[in-house]
Amino acid sequence: MNSELLQTFLKIVEYRQISQAADSLYITQAAVSNRLHRMESLLGVKLINRVKGNNTISLTRYGQRLVPIARQWIQLNDQVDSLKEMGDYHVLSIATSLDINTAILSEIAPTTLMDDSLLRFNIQTTDDLNIYDLIDNDLADIGFSFVESTRHKIETRKIGQERLVLVTPPDSAYPDFVGTTMLSRYDEIMIPYNDSYRKWHMLCWEDKIPPFVRLDASLPVPQYFVNDRNWALIPESMARFFLKHGQPLRVLHLLEKPPVLPLIAVSRPQRINAPEAKKLAVKLQSELFKQQQDNDFFQS
């Protein structure tokens, strides 16, 4: 029996009028009458007494017997629907940088959730130092960062590394192989990834000169390509992401190699969700490796 039909019948019983039952269900009187006729046809009995000129209905003896059955049916149906809400869900809270989430984590998260119907992700994108704070304060189960920091009771593990690639607008006049002396700091879209990168950067360009724009993530980089001299160093996975999604840009070969970015998994091993966190870290590691195997054209 259709629960919708039973619910309509119970509304008729509650209000004793077709019109009020229709109003409570936000449907027309004709729809209520149609559902009632369908029920009576399915059961082969008459459920209500209709008196011409009288809006108030009364129940037949079959209708009276159906009331407790209908209520029990609805109750059982609600209990079945609530089983999903009563499931033993385990929520994994993840703190990550915007770039890692965009280009790597988003590639594995959907399939990971599909593989485990009781797993749920709470993903927070934030800056690298706050990732450590969230882990330190038990506000996240695992974090993924390009910054390695030492904190008491926090475990860090390098699960991979990212090459930085030089990107420019698609119509730039730069040659395929570029030296740092050919790149003006005034045209740079700068992302200060970590201390190692900043130290290398200071050796190549005068730090007192302001860049064209400074960002905290590389995701918005293409939006700041406003002239054909703009350039940026971004993680290889982000370059792959842009090209995959049809974002026009050129990937050039920088002669002076920048330091690689370590991909660090940050966690507190004693947390309840530690096993799920470790599994996710392994999948992230595999995804990064797979991407790098598929993107050898980024290498010089």
From TrEMBL:
Name of the protein in its database record: LysR family transcriptional regulator
Family statement: Belongs to the LysR transcriptional regulatory family.
PROSITE patterns: HTH_LYSR
Record SUPFAM superfamilies: Periplasmic binding protein-like II (SSF53850), Winged helix' DNA-binding domain (SSF46785)
Keyword DNA-binding: yes
Source species: Levilactobacillus tujiorum
Domain of life according to the entry: Bacteria
Keyword check for DNA-binding: yes
Pfam families: HTH_1, LysR_substrate
Taxonomic lineage from the root: Bacteria, Bacillati, Bacillota, Bacilli, Lactobacillales
Keywords from the named record: DNA-binding, Transcription, Transcription regulation
Positions of the HTH lysR-type domain: 1-60
